[in-house]
Amino acid sequence: MVTELFRTEQTLAKMSPPCTIVGDIHGQYSDLLRLLNSRGSKLESKKLSQPGFCANRFVFLGDYVDRGSHSIECISLVFALKIVYPGNYVLLRGNHETRAINFAYGFREELMNKLGEADGADVWEKFNEAFSWMPLACIVGERILCMHGGISPELHSLDDIRKIKRPLVDVGTIHLAQDLLWADPAPDQTMIVVHDEPVYNKNTVRGLSCVFNAAAVRDTCKRLNIQMIVRAHQMMPEGFRFYCDRKLITIFSAPRYMNETDNKGAVLKVEESGKFGVIVMNSKKTPTGNMNDELTRADDIPSQGTDKKKSDSTSKTAQSTSSKSASGSKND
Prior knowledge:
By secondary structure, the protein is of the alpha/beta class. The protein has a domain at 15-148 and 229-297: Purple Acid Phosphatase, chain A, domain 2. Helices cover 28% and strands 19% of the residues. The strands form 4 sheets. It has a 6-stranded mixed beta sheet with strand order 1-5-6-10-13-12. α6 crosses α7. The longest helix has 15 residues, at 117-131. The chain is globular and about 55 Å long. Pfam families: Metallophos (PF00149). Belongs to the PPP phosphatase family. Its EC number is 3.1.3.16. Keywords: Hydrolase. Residues 282-332 are annotated as: Disordered.
């Protein structure tokens, strides 16, 4: 059923604000429920005409499966929500929604363990058939371009994304598609960050796709007439990180990633006016037992944050929580 829905959508999906943009989930089912039920403010909650999260609009940036232990629950829930509320949910494809990756990093093994070898293998094939039809990018309010990975030297206009034909079993056969799922901003310590001209270099960390500098981000935003680029694909200690004077933001929505790090998670709330804020999902419970997720409006978030020593405390004001710019990332 969800495959048929994906077939009716363009490769470049559309969403109107207000909406919530979600990064990597990676089989963390309880955190998926947290973010689906997140509220930016009491006033926002009162405005909702329906209870629960189904009245909201969501754009998911991919990587629903692998790494975590509840991939089947996560992907089944978001697919079911897409079927019941097709206009409220945009589900983009991530690099883990590809056969080679979710074969190696846990999804296929989880299916076979939970469903048995024969049924698990068959269900895995069906899921990857659905993945091959998923949109690769989304435009929010005509001004915010979303994808899992990043931009590409092959991205000259939004029509370039629309022209990518699906089903796309192997994203490596189309350069632009591969970059949309795999590309990264250049690390701070690389030389291309100081160039005033757009630069795309080979992504040596991942072994495929590219890294791009801030000038490439500015050039893409100007050429496509967009305000900002939102992507996922990298773990951020604070759950998010701005790049290129807030023209690009990385969102990662899996706190306590793989139960190995003390990272926070985050989602991006886009208001009808186009303003946006970040909800930070803390990684530890407060003394009261609550997770204390907090909303920070865009005006409270500095474009060039000062790195601070990480604190064990998770009970902070929204401004102090989000004013720290994440200083590192973990490739996924």
